[in-house]
Specification:
- The structure holds 3 protein chains of 3 kinds.
- By secondary structure, chain A is of the alpha/beta class.
- Chain A has helices spanning about 45-55, 85-90, 95-105, 110-125, 140-155, 170-185, 200-205, 235, 240-255, and strands spanning about 5-15, 20-30, 35-40, 60-65, 70, 80, 160, 190-195, 205-210, 215-225.
- Helix content of chain A is about 40%, strand content about 25%.
- The longest helix of chain A has 18 residues, at about 170-185.
- Helices cover about 85% and strands about 0% of the residues of chain B.
- By secondary structure, chain C is an all-alpha fold.
- The chains are: A alpha/beta, B mainly alpha, C mainly alpha.
- Chains in contact: A-B, B-C.
- Chains B and C meet through helix 1, helix 4, helix 5, helix 9 and helix 10 of B and helix 1, helix 5, helix 6, helix 9 and helix 10 of C.
Chain lengths: ~260, ~260, ~260
């Protein structure tokens, strides 16, 4: 049984003047446990709305989301969303340690056990030594790592990520992509990733869904079968990488 | 001119003024009854501090001030949070609050006298009323300003309502709450002095006015000096508290150069 | 939230409910009537005071002292503030003094004022000026100091003279801060006037309210509080209206160096 199912999901907003904005058209897809899947689409196509609906933070207009066999009505317990704006999502009043520990606290883990687990996660995302720092003392990339570590501390079965590397510079982005893959390989979480960066999606994912512009629909589903562990130089140098990239680029160009 | 030179200028100037004061009083350029020599004032101050007179009065005032301040915080911070989270509550109380806000705090003193006479409760009531609005409105402001994303973060981690308030809302608006408390500090001091001048039998405010009425002028100035020192000390204490309780915020402000 | 302001029905209802509670509670318990006279009686007393002109005399006294104190303080504080903000040396001299005097609550000056000026208008205006000057002064200095030196240099290269620079660059540039100081001092001035009237006055709203309490006339006391609250409200609205008018004037000018 797939760990996550989206069935005929659609979302439209009623504007002030009475017109509706159709954010999501009709989305149906399934995700198996342990997969790394991505949604790619043009800006403003409703990707964030889609993810927020899956995360149970927004109520869909129609359709449903099923996580581990149960329909989603509000944030499901085995799922966590990592936001794009990490600086607004992190807790400014907690240290890095405190922020990551929050994930465990939210899970209900006793504090005696949490210390070592928290430190392990901080090390896993590459922030060893910064435990006592506050978020404002860290760079953007480091802050996003904290957000990821915090989400992982919660030990979700499904991790949703809303363009998490979107506001970071190119080199930091590559670094974090690898960190994420490393973490994913170790923890075997299911990851649902959205991005507008086609190459990033190809590099990271097992499967990709290409979204159209508003109202977003799935134009195509692609399987990415490059071997793992992936490598920024070798994987991206493969001939098929560019072919896939161009294919997706063309699709998005048509549809938006 | 750098900071040090500037500070030096300032200190030298103060000294010059002090000497001028002393001379003016001794040479009768000003009426020494109204403006006694600085030396006499300091002497009086020293005696009164040593004898415990002034400290006692300050203690009496502080007792009332602290109770009023803490009471106001204990009532209006939770109320502000409640009003901030539940819009119905906000709108329901909004009009009543706007009606009470324009009342200048001293105008409440006769009411307090009516209820409590010259007792401590009178001053506590006045301080409670005066600190209400800064604390309430700043707390409210803080809650309203919490980014939606932060609340969504709490939701995605499956936090209950209560835990969200305790672990996210409260810390997130603590800088605003601090502002409200900071603004209320001088207000507390001012009103404890006023209420003591209008209706009291002890306290530093009463002491200053009483000294004037008995024509013990150096003593009066001594009381004012004590009051200035008190104000300065309270500010220092508050900053210390701010730094230790909200060290994360303190650090952020420093980074911004504030 | 959208910008449409809806009329706050709930708020007014709640207020009305509270007032009814007060009225009912006061009428049903004669003992309570002394502390909480029924709202209707307070309003009646208020009406009487207005009609008889009795409150008018006190109101006028308070207003005149307030205006005198506030205006003079503004004149003094803004001019001194601009001067000190402009001339670093002068400010460096006075900075320490200001830091020493600031923590002392301005009300402590009342006994000194009574000593020097006796009881009366002069004393009340004097303490009002003293207290109101501080926020205006500090904020004005701050505002002037924050003006980018580049702006002044720019004005200079355009051949603007000293006074022109002051009028067309410094004041507009510092005006947000100056206005903040003026706004803070608005409530402070009213506080000091009422306080001084209570401690050593023979006329004025502050005196009236206290006097009525001492005469065991709680209805008139509350009525007086309503009047002084209305005064405070009116002053605030007036200030906002004036502020909006001057802001419009400012928008047409060269933007100042502040946010």
């Amino acid at each position: 049984m797939p760990i996550l199912e989206v069935q005929n999901l659609s979302k439209s907003y009623r504007q002030l003047r009475g017109e509706s904005t159709h954010a999501i058209g009709n989305i149906t897809c399934q995700v198996e446990a342990g997969e790394f899947v991505s949604f790619v689409g043009p800006s403003g196509c409703g990707k964030t709305t889609l993810l927020m609906s899956i995360a149970g933070l927004i109520e869909p207009t129609s359709g449903q989301v099923i996580v581990k066999g149960r329909a989603v009505k509000g944030p499901p317990p085995d799922l966590v969303l990592v936001f794009q704006e990490y600086n607004k999502s992190l807790f400014a009043w907690r240290t890095i340690l405190g922020n990551v520990r929050f994930g465990l606290e939210a899970r209900g883990v006793r504090s005696s056990r949490s210390e070592s687990r928290t430190r392990d996660l901080i090390e896993l995302v590459g922030l060893k030594g910064f435990e006592k720092h506050y978020p404002w003392e860290l760079s953007g990339g480091m802050q996003q790592r904290v957000a990821i570590a915090r989400a992982l501390a919660y030990e979700p079965e499904v991790l949703l990520m809303d363009e998490p590397f979107g506001s970071l510079d190119a080199l930091t982005r590559l670094d974090l992509e690898d960190t994420l893959l490393r973490v994913w390989a170790e923890l075997k979480t299911t990851i649902l990733f959205i991005t507008h960066d086609i190459e990033e999606a190809i590099y990271l994912s097992d499967r990709i869904w290409v979204l159209s512009g508003r109202p977003s629909q799935i134009i195509q589903e692609l399987s990415i079968d490059f071997p793992r562990p992936r490598n920024q130089v070798e994987t991206r140098a493969e001939a098929r990488f560019m072919i896939l990239r161009n294919e997706i680029y063309r699709q998005i160009g048509h549809a938006s | 001119m750098n900071m040090r030179e500037s500070k030096l200028n300032g200190i030298v100037f103060v000294f010059v003024l002090m000497i001028a004061w002393e001379l003016a009083a001794r040479l009768h350029w000003v009426n020494p009854l109204i403006v006694p020599p600085l030396s006499r004032i300091f002497a009086s101050f020293g005696t009164l501090v040593a004898s415990g007179d002034i400290p006692l009065q300050i203690l009496a005032s502080m007792k009332r001030a602290v109770v009023g301040y803490i009471l106001a915080a204990a009532v209006f911070i939770p109320l502000g949070i409640f009003m901030g989270l539940f819009d119905y509550c906000h709108r329901a109380l909004e009009v009543a609050i706007e009606m009470l806000r324009p009342i200048p705090p001293p105008a409440v003193i006769p009411v307090a006298l009516l209820f409590f006479g010259l007792e401590d409760e009178m001053k506590i009531f006045v301080i409670f009323f005066s600190c209400a609005w800064p604390i309430l409105l700043n707390t409210l402001d803080g809650v309203k300003n919490i980014d939606r994303l932060l609340m969504n973060t709490a939701r995605t981690f499956g936090l209950s309502r209560v835990r969200t308030i305790w672990q996210v809302v409260l810390p997130a608006c603590s800088p605003h709450i601090m502002t409200g408390l900071r603004v209320s500090l001088p207000i507390t001091l001012i009103l404890v002095v006023i209420s003591e001048m209008v209706g009291s039998t002890d306290g530093i405010g009463y002491f200053i006015l009483d000294s004037q009425r008995r024509f013990k002028i150096p003593q009066m100035y001594g009381g004012m000096l004590a009051l200035a020192v008190l104000g300065y000390a309270l500010n220092l204490l508050f900053n210390l508290a701010h730094r230790s309780l909200l060290s994360w915020h303190w650090g952020m402000l420093r980074k911004e150069g504030r | 939230m959208n910008g449409v302001k809806q009329f706050n029905w709930i708020g007014w209802l709640v207020l009305a409910a509270l007032l009814c509670l007060w009225e009912y509670g006061a009428r049903s318990s004669p003992k309570l009537q002394y502390y909480f006279p029924p709202v209707s009686q307070i309003l009646y007393a208020l009406g009487q005071l207005i009609i008889s002109g009795r409150i008018a005399a006190h109101l006028l006294a308070t207003i005149s002292r307030f205006l005198e104190g506030y205006m003079l303080a503004a004149l003094l504080a803004v001019s001194m503030g601009v001067f000190l903000g402009y001339f670093r040396f002068a400010y460096s001299l006075l900075e320490t003094l200001i830091e020493f005097l600031r923590p002392m609550p301005s009300v402590a000056i009342v006994p000194v004022a009574v000593l020097a000026l006796g009881i009366g208008d002069a004393m009340i205006v004097a303490v009002t000026i003293y207290a109101s000057v501080w926020p205006m002064l500090v904020n004005t200095i701050d505002g002037v100091r924050r003006i980018e030196p580049i702006l002044i240099d720019t004005a200079r290269t355009f051949g603007l003279g000293r006074w022109a620079i002051l009028w067309r660059v410094v004041l507009p540039g510092a005006s947000p801060y100056i206005v903040t100081g003026l706004r803070i001092s608005l409530s402070i001035a009213l506080i000091l006037v009422t306080t001084a009237e209570m401690i050593a006055g023979s006329r004025g709203l502050g005196f009236f309210i206290l006097d009525q309490e001492r005469s065991f006339n709680s209805r008139n006391m509350y009525a007086g509080i309503i009047v002084v609250a209305a005064l405070g409200y009116a002053l605030n609205r007036l200030f906002l209206a004036l502020e909006n008018k001057t802001l419009r004037w400012q928008r047409g000018m060269v933007a100042g160096g502040s946010v």
